[in-house]
Specification:
The protein has 10 helices and no strands. By secondary structure, the protein is mainly α.
Length: 208
């Protein structure tokens, strides 16, 4: 039993080592330089060894994407203590933007790159638990806001997409250094709050 446990631990350690190396290349050198061979050279293992853990580069990127969602979920743990759902919605937006600014490589991989979705499409179970959980959390907050009369009643999916698209657009502009074309980059959180207020109050989203 001890031997089996040690083998399992070594496998997990090597898997983590591979993912750490992949993230380092992705962050420091860019997606175009990420390859199985490059990672193998970094960790002094053969490419064949890495293929025992990951099918291809897209598989690696998908797993890094999953780690990103775990990190973002940890940041959102502070939402449970907020009773007011509208305040919770705004805090979720703050968390999303803060995560994107602090972890731009993860953010780009999670929300902009096609590779994780290409990997997902090839999996036997193509349900995306991490992405679905993040979206479900947003929709639950929206439902609470509607029930308490804080957001106009409407199509939950459309409302969620409108809110997500607004916040995603802001952080994407900030990460790509386009934000200061309209406002100072330091005001991204304040702009997010104002944008959500305007969206919630002004947009007529027809219910199904």
């Amino acid at each position: 039993m001890v031997t089996k446990t040690r083998k399992t631990n070594r496998k997990e350690e090597l898997r983590d080592l591979i993912l750490d190396a992949a993230l380092k290349v992705f962050v420091e050198e860019g997606l175009e330089h990420l390859s199985i061979r490059r990672i193998a050279d970094m960790i002094s293992y053969s490419a064949t060894t890495i293929y025992l853990y990951f099918n291809d580069k897209n598989h690696l990127l998908f797993e890094l994407c999953e780690l990103g969602f775990l990190r973002m979920a940890e940041i959102n743990n502070n939402l449970s203590s907020i009773q007011n759902p509208l305040e919770r919605l705004h805090r979720m937006g703050e968390n999303y933007i803060t995560f994107g600014m602090e972890h731009p490589a993860y953010y780009d991989l999670m929300f902009n790159q096609a590779a994780p979705m290409e990997r997902l499409a090839t999996m036997d179970n193509s349900e995306w638990d991490s992405g679905d959980k993040a979206l479900a959390q947003l929709k639950e907050i929206i439902v609470e806001c509607i029930e308490q009369g804080m957001i106009r009643k409407g199509d939950i999916d459309v409302i969620a997409m409108a809110i997500w698209g607004t916040v995603h657009g802001l952080i994407s502009l900030r990460v790509c250094k386009r934000f200061d074309k309209l406002v100072d980059a330091s005001e991204v959180l304040q702009t997010m709050h104002r944008s959500l207020e305007w969206l919630i109050q002004s947009v007529d989203i027809t219910e199904k």
